[in-house]
């Protein structure tokens, strides 16, 4: 099955990590939030410390995987080389997408070590991925709206947990000139 456009690694609805053909086991770890580092300063003679905020550290993902069929010893070694060739981190980051959230993407690279537990005809191991950029990004979400009369308002909402600004592309398909076009940004006030 071909990968979605712009995706290097895809955990599909059958929990198969494509294009490697590995089964993703249930004890994989994908954290809700990345680790944080508190920025604090200790002041001599003062109890406690002064808190200057937090920053996000790289996000870590661990995919526990196994090969999905029985292999001969020679086929297992060949499969290991194929996996190593694909994961080599010097080729930069790869885009990872999960079937249960196909609109989200992680930018990952292999980081760490792989200890393989080998059995007679199959093996399993954990792939440690690091997201140096700790954010989960939305895949391109396009919405097309035809404006035929003025005034008309279009609302664009981000479903992420951080502010993100849309890219607005205007295309005039008519012969009339567009005059008085305004883009406004409104931020909701939390109570």
Number of helices: 1
| CATH class term of the domain at 9-138 | Mainly Beta
- Largest β-sheet summary: 7 strands, mixed, barrel
Radius of gyration: 23 Å
Task: Report the average pLDDT across residues.
Answer: 85
How would you write the strand order of the largest sheet? 1-2-3-7-11-9-8
| Amino-to-carboxy terminus distance | 48 Å
CATH architecture of the domain at 9-138: Beta Barrel
Secondary-structure content class: mainly beta
| Overall body shape | flat
Descriptive report:
The protein is built from 1 helix and 12 strands; from the N terminus they run βββββββαβββββ. By secondary structure, the chain is mostly beta strands. It has a domain at 9-138: Elongation Factor Tu (Ef-tu), domain 3. The strands form 2 sheets. Strands 1-2-3-7-11-9-8 form a 7-stranded mixed beta barrel. A two-stranded antiparallel ribbon has the order 5-6. The longest helix is centred in the middle third of the chain and has 15 residues, at 73-87. It starts with 8 loop residues before the first strand and ends in a 53-residue tail after the last strand. The relative contact order is 0.16. The mean pLDDT is 85.
């Amino acid at each position: 099955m071909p990968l979605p456009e712009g995706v290097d690694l895809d955990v599909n609805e059958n929990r198969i990590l494509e294009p490697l053909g590995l089964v993703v086991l249930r004890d994989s770890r994908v954290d809700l939030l990345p680790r944080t580092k508190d920025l604090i300063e200790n002041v001599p003679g003062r109890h406690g410390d002064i808190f200057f905020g937090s920053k996000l550290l790289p996000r870590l993902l661990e995919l526990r995987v196994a090969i999905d069929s029985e292999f001969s010893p020679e086929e297992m070694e060949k499969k290991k080389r194929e996996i190593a060739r694909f994961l080599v981190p010097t080729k930069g980051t790869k885009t990872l997408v999960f079937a249960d959230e196909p609109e989200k993407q992680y930018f990952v690279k292999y980081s760490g070590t792989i200890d393989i537990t080998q059995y007679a005809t199959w093996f399993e191991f954990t792939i440690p991925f690091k997201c140096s950029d700790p954010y989960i990004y939305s895949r391109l979400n396009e919405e097309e709206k035809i404006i035929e009369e003025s005034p008309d308002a279009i609302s664009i909402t981000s479903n992420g947990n951080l502010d993100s600004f849309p890219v607005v592309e205007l295309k005039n398909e008519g012969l009339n000139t567009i005059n008085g076009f305004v883009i406004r940004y409104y931020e909701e006030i939390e109570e």
